[in-house]
Amino acid sequence: MPDEMSLPRAASDSAARWPFDNSYGRLPERFYARLAPTAVSAPKLVKLNRPLALQLGLDPEVLASPEGVEILAGNRLAEGSEPIALAYAGHQFGNFVPQLGDGRAVLLGEVVDATGIRRDLQLKGSGPTPFSRRGDGRAALGPVLREYLVSEAMHALGIPTTRSLAAVTTGDYVYREAALPGAVLTRVASSHIRVGTFQFFAARGDIEALRLLADHVIARHYPDASGYRDLYEKVIARQAALVARWLLVGFIHGVMNTDNVSIAGETIDYGPCAFMDAYNPETVFSSIDTYGRYAYGKQPQIGGWNMARLGEALMPLFAEDTDEALKQANESLQTYQPLFGRALMAGLRRKLGLSTEQDGDSELAQDFLNLLHDHGTDFTLAFRRLGDGTARNLFEDPAAFDAWATRWRERTASEPQDEATRRATMHAVNPIYIPRNHRVEAALSAAIEDGDYGPFEELQAVLAQPYEERPEFAAYAEPPPADQRAYRTFCGT
Ligand code: AMP
Ligand code: MG
């Protein structure tokens, strides 16, 4: 094994000078543990996100160089990097765990791009930390590639998310049910502060830390917030908008624990997530979600539950008197449901090609979803083909569709938009390509079993332009064959 806890040498030449400014590391020591990534045996770059590198002000050629790859593997530190593992707590499947933290990730630092945007650069799968508990601190190649594909697909869909800058194989095995090739993902995020970060300090009665954290979050993510109550309501608003966006593309996060809820309102922690094919609100893919707590249709409610937990953590900042603080937290929490409802309805209107609001729109939308549910119709294709005028073909019993379609056509007749404009606006919000589970699996197994990254690269290219139909990629739009529909995902550990 490589020498475990020694600090890798910092590169001193200009190639490794990155625009770091590490604000989280200036918070008190109890917010994190300082440690470097643990070196791996034989780092090999398997995927680099060149456009993202450029956006961050990093040179893709430098990243792809042997020295860059060592940095992306955790074998070497870029100049200016001050690696830390973040402390946080969280409710996992409803049960509070007072200490979780980065058990297999290290924040290399924050880079500020040319436009002043600050982003975290984190290695995931970078070795054990003081927060690892019984885990090995590592990640297997499959989950790393999966997070890469799905997070980048979410970004292309226009949904707030962490990004993936690079995937490196380690040359070491990780031991799960079987020995699997190890990998390290370089994750980019607005920050890695979670609801669970607030819970960590609240659970310890550390009000000073709570206030410092809230001030840090305001400065970094919510500069317009007028105070802690307003901060809370702004986090709630982003979370409500985010969960609505998930529902509108059929995304199932799979593990909406409070430690996996970004305070900045980004989708984070791609473990057992997956996209729904046939519309069914009860859809669950995660093998560990036995009771369907995080089913597709439960996500709005769980989003609210998570915001309630954030309110509890923030209460000491609202008022000294507990009853008063609770009253304020509850008042703010009431904003979640209506905000979510409006965001979802606005999105459904757009998906249905309705640019105006009319009574009955909500029933029209719900009846379409019910129709899809009753007939096991593919969610993504149904909306896309509605825009094309060919949705009827998706139904074995077209008459059921016709009854609804008559109502829809009557409704769209009162729209100011012409047919062509409607079609274009529908296509701009109804993707033709999503990361279909069978495609993701095929790309991953080719990469892992055969070292063939062709399918991965092609799938990534398809998903980078999810709204633009390209005839050569027609097969990627298709739902899985019948024998591949019973899909299971496993937590990325
Ligand atoms: P997750 O379910 O991936 O959100 O992870 C929950 C917690 O378990 C976090 O504190 C992770 O850092 C930690 N964890 C997950 N996998 C590992 C691992 N292989 N080694 C150490 N810690 C891990
Ligand atoms: Mg997590």
CA gyration radius, whole angstroms: 23 Å
Q: What bound compounds does this protein have?
A: adenosine monophosphate, magnesium ion
Distance between the termini: 21 Å
Q: How many strands? A: 12
Question: From the helix content, strand content and strand pairing, which structural class follows?
Answer: alpha+beta
Please mark out the parts with pLDDT under 50 across 5 or more consecutive residues, or reply none. 1-6
Task: Summarize the amount of helix as a percent range.
Answer: 40-55%
- Quick one: overall form? globular
Strand content: 5-15%
Could you describe the largest sheet, including whether it forms a barrel? 6 strands, antiparallel
Mean pLDDT score, rounded? 95
- Regarding quaternary structure, what we see is single chain
**Order of helices and strands, N to C?**
EEHHHEEEEEEHEEHHHEEHHHHHHHHH
Tally of individual helices:
16
Q: Can you give a write-up of this model?
A:
The structure is a single chain. It contains 16 helices and 12 strands. With 493 residues, the protein is α+β, with helices and mostly antiparallel strands. Among the domains are: 4-192, no CATH class; 196-344, no CATH class. Strands 2, 6, 7, 8, 9 and 10 form a 6-stranded antiparallel sheet that branches. Strands 1-3 form a two-stranded antiparallel ribbon. A hairpin with a 5-residue loop joins strand 6 (105-112) and strand 7 (118-124). Residues 100-104, 131-132, 135-138, 255, 259-260, 269, 271, 491-493 line the site of adenosine monophosphate.
